[in-house]
Amino acid sequence: MSSTTESSAEQLIRRFRDVVGEDGLLYRPEELIVYECDGYVVEKNVPDVVVFPRTTAQIIELVKICNDLKVPFVPRGAGTSLAGGTLPVGGGVMITLTRMREILEINYRDRYAIVEPGLVNVHLTQALKGSGYHYAPDPSSQGACTLGGNVATNSGGPHTLKYGVTVNHVLGIEYVSPQGELMRLGGPQEEMPGYDLTGMFVGSEGTFGICTKIWVRLTRDPAAHRTLLAIFETVKDATETISAIIGAGIVPAALEMMDQGIIAALEEAFHFGFPLDAGAVLLIETDGLEVSVEQDALDIERLCSENGAREVRRAGTEAERQLLWKCRKQAFGAIGRLSPSYCTQDGVVPRTKLPEILDCITESSERHGIRVVNVFHAGDGNIHPILLFDERDPEQIKRVMAASDEILNRCIDLGGSVTGEHGIGVEKISFMSRLFTENDLEIMGRIRIAMNPTGCCSPSKMLPTAGACGMEHIERSHPGKQAHA
Amino acid sequence: MTEFSPVSAKELARFLRDNSKGERAQVFPVGGRTSLQFLGPQQTTAALLSTHQIANVIDYPARDMTITVGAGMRTSDLSEILANENQELPIDISHNQRATIGGAISCNVSGPRRYGQGTFRDYLIGMTAVDAEGKEFHAGGRVVKNVAGYDLCKLMIGSRGSLGVLTEITLKVKPKQDHLEAVWINCESFETIDLLCEKMLNSATRPVAMEAFTPAACQFVVADARINFPTDHPVMLVFYEGTEKELLWQIGMLRSELDHPGVRSIEEVGDESSILLLGTLTEFPDGGDVPATFQANMRPSRVASFLEYCTSRNISAVARLGNGIVIGHLPDDIGHEAQKSVLNELSAHTHNDGGNLILLNAEEPIASELSWWGRAEQSWSVMKTIKESLDPSGLLNPGGTPFE
Ligand SMILES: Cc1cc2nc3c(=O)[nH]c(=O)nc-3n(C[C@H](O)[C@H](O)[C@H](O)COP(=O)(O)OP(=O)(O)OC[C@H]3O[C@@H](n4cnc5c(N)ncnc54)[C@H](O)[C@@H]3O)c2cc1C
Fold first, then answer.
1. Coil, strand or helix: which one is A389?
2. Model confidence, pTM
3. Pocket test for ligand 1, best of A37, A76, A344 (most atoms within 8 A of CB)
4. Closest partner CB to A424 (pick from B148, B151, B322)
5. Regarding predicted confidence, which is higher, A48 or A482?
6. Rounded to 5 degrees, what angle do the CA atoms B76, B78, B83 make?
7. Is the minimum CB–CB distance between A291 and chain B shorter than 8 Å?
8. Among the four residues A282, A477, B80, B264, which has the most C-beta atoms within 10 Å?
9. Can you say whether residue A154 is alpha, beta or left, with left for phi > 0 and alpha for psi between -120 and 50 degrees?
10. What is the DSSP code string of A403-432?
11. Helix, strand, or coil (residue B127)
């Protein structure tokens, strides 16, 4: 269903064409199909128009036109969202930022870079290579996802454990407000008086406007690191090792877990030499000064052995280390070998509760007859059970949803959250009222109205109420999963 | 002004609810009263609302490295509880015997170690607050990673109680570092300091703080920290934290890296004195009876020349070199007009680079003649909208925000 009538759609396209030209627009049904969903494939809807601005001035114009015609719009980066963040609920306009991908400035002296929102995360890393500095947030999707998408979802990654998530590395933001005004929050100066709006903008999932420029903090490269692969007979031993490491006061740079299912897929894809009979492996990286990393590595090896590791290997060369990280970061890519479709969940529990949540995942998988493999940011307690299914079978979809529900509800019961880094999007809206009280949601609703008064920017995202852009009547094909109270 | 110190969050909420339905007095939330100078113009009917009795440990799963406490807990008590588990919140908070953790968050307090350890933005992971109408609201949670909903924690940091009164907070904490060691680097000039800052960008060492002083501040610092180091030239101070082995290696490395003709001497301050020194620098913003104390925010590359200017005006100033923050006290031996013109010049200096200068404290007539918050920013209009949507009647800490 579309929110624009035939004539207003035509008017929209004509006016957009004046701003971005014909090659900046897609509106034919066969072209739009690619944009019907992002990395969350369970729910789909095509936008009426996809537009590719090249400049901030164009975005201002586009947003003003949307306002004029009362059409909803949603920003999109690379579309790797795993929560349906870019789903154009009710149709409307999708503003895709991938043509705005310049690095505008790198300033080592003041340790920041200014980038456009469509810049792919890894391209910044590559540009900084050899300088002794890097941009710390490294989502596993960094080869594709954009900095604008990272800001909107407050992305994390394997090295979040020590270095923090996106918000810990963003100094300032320029954005086009939902009314089409150009705004600036923060900048290269670390502190400015007043509220930390930059901090609040990060993680707002596209509902506060379209981010057009980002000031990011550059981080020193670690002087030295040790990368270990600990092999365990059981998932339980591995998770207990995680608690033991963190409990001993060691904060590695990264602490990732992969279970047997994912190891098999990775081995087939990369031939690293992962042991196929292992129950789980931990990929652990410790970094710091050369004088101290060795001791950390020895302590970690000891804790692994004390907790039942069958073997602890070290990446002997930089090439071996890179391969290990490649395996980890491309783990999702390898899943195609296991199943036609998959749904990646994103729960968080206090780190000491990992054994309990992994038991819950196994039980849910068995109960619903859905195969689940696990690859996740264990040190942060951020689980990513990957539910394997065939999206052509509606019955399987139901079971995937039921199993996901169970797992996420258990995360809440264990004192955690339903999303550590992927966001609420459309996928998890119905969990919001389990996580938050009515008052909490009401306050968030007020903030949304303050930032996005008409609700036309990213309608029907994140909050169960508000921001529907006059489309309250629209029925979604797979409305976010229903959490059981 | 009346004062109320509820013993629980519930009681605090009831007070605010009753107030919003009844008297509608302006309410000034306070913790340890260490930053009361920020209270705006107050009506006689206004009420001070103190959280200091809401100070319990709610949950401390030390192995998860998070802690949840009442917002009124003294920061020194918090440090002690964490130290028992060999953990810490590595934020330097002034007056920590009096300051409450909720107050420190509301004022976004930080000190020298923000360079290496970050600020509350990096540690506050969950909170409960009560709005002007007495409604309790939460954000975040007790897990270290969580992106569910708008991050109201960030909004509350530095909001000075103008959006809600914090009652409960959850922090991410870190393993406590074994040792702290400062290195006193006596330099020929501020130009040398600028050069050393550039060198430090690629240092093999990882300082946790980098500070510099004007001569006036230097004399105060040595006296206050009871140390004996040369103060006749500009000084740069580099702090390291870690194991003995790490400190030893880093200090040795620093000496070789900073081998430069502009460096007159490099001296280790020593374990105990380093802690005292960190304390002195943390307390530095409290200048006692000085006519005005300011904080200038700029890019780090502008700090050395700013300090040079401060020196020429006999300002006692301490700089966070890696963060671009300078805190200074105006001398009291010049007239008010001269003080105002110095402040205006300093402001212009920071504005030229897109930065800002705010007053942390000021006596009359400066207090009422100059803007406390510096040059107005475009984003203040957004802040105003947020304030109006969360506290429509403007009951909470009126006058305590830049945009009013
Ligand atoms: C294989 C795989 C691995 C992943 N691993 C991780 C991981 O390790 N850590 C992690 O955090 N995430 C991970 N993700 C999720 C995803 O990559 C991140 O959420 C990422 O930040 C999305 O970036 P994007 O450019 O693809 O944004 P999109 O998917 O296009 O959009 C995401 C959200 O951001 C909004 N948005 C995009 N651009 C802008 C803008 N310029 N202004 C305002 N809003 C905007 C959108 O409206 C949407 O709500 C993974 C995804 C995949 C497919």
1. strand
2. 0.95
3. A76
4. B148
5. A48
6. 95
7. yes
8. A282
9. left
10. HHHHHHHHHHHTT-BS-SSS--TTTTGGGH
11. strand
Asked if A77 and A148 touch (Cβ cutoff 8 Å), the reply is yes
Query: Which residue shows structure tokens 């940091």?
Result: B157
The pLDDT assigned to A66 comes to 97
Is B77:B61 a contact under the CB 8 Å cutoff?
A: no
pLDDT for the residue numbered A282: 96
Residue given tokens 């709006």 in the structure block: A197
Let me know: does A94 contact A59? Beta carbons within 8 Å.
no
Beta bridge partners of B165: B130
3-state SS, residue B52: coil
pLDDT, tens digit (0-9, with 9 covering 90-100), for A268-289: 888 888 899 999 999 999 999 9
B380: contact with A, CB 8 A cutoff: yes
The torsion of the CA quartet A270, A275, A278, A283, rounded to 10 degrees, works out to: -60
Task: Please work out whether the CB of residue A219 comes within 6 Å of at least one atom of ligand 1.
Answer: no
Q: From residue B25, how far is each of A233, B17, B28, B37, B385 by CA, in Å?
A: 65, 11, 10, 20, 22
Buried b (16+ CB within 10 A) or exposed e, B80-90: ebbeebebbbb
At A280, list the tokens.
Answer: 């789980």
Q: Are B211 and B112 in contact (CB under 8 A)?
A: yes
**Domains detected in chain A:** 8-96 (3.30.43.10), 103-220 (3.30.465.10), 226-320 (3.30.70.3450), 339-413 (3.30.70.2740)
Q: Is A2 left (phi over 0), alpha (psi -120 to 50) or beta?
A: beta
Backbone angles phi, psi at B31, to 5 degrees: -110, -100
Q: What whole-number distance in Å separates Cα of residue B398 and Cα of residue B400?
A: 5
Residue type, A85: G
CB B240 within 8 Å of CB B208: yes
Any idea of the CA torsion for A240, A246, A251, A256, to the nearest 10 degrees? 20
Residue A169: partners with Cβ closer than 8 Å, 6 or more residues away: A135, A136, A137, A163, A216, A217, A219
- Determine the distance in angstroms separating the CA of A300 from the nearest CA of chain B, rounded to an integer: 15
| CA proximity to A469, closest of A7, A15, A93, A34 | A93
CB contact under 8 A, B121 and A167: yes
CA distance A49 to A146: 21
Beta carbons of A16 and A22 less than 8 angstroms apart = no
φ/ψ bin of B150: left (φ > 0), alpha (ψ from -120 to 50), beta (otherwise):
beta
- Element containing residue B150 per DSSP (H, E): none
CA atoms within 13 Å, Cβ hemisphere of A219: 23
Question: Of A34, A50, A60, A86, which is best to mutate to test ligand 1, by the most ligand atoms within 8 angstroms of its C-beta?
Answer: A86
The answer to whether the CB of B236 falls within 8 A of the CB of B223 is: no
Strands B2-4, B47-50: pairing is parallel
DSSP string, A125-140: HHHHTTTTEE-----T
Name all domains of chain B by residue range, CATH numbers in brackets.
Answer: 2-175 (3.30.465.10), 179-283 (3.30.70.2190), 292-369 (3.30.70)
How many angstroms separate the Cα of A217 from the Cα of each of A105, A112, A179, B218, B321?
Answer: 12, 5, 29, 30, 16
Contact between A213 and A117 (Cβ < 8 Å)? yes
Give the CA distances from residue A238 to residues A138, A298, A379, A431, in Å, rounded to whole numbers and listed in that order: 23, 17, 11, 29
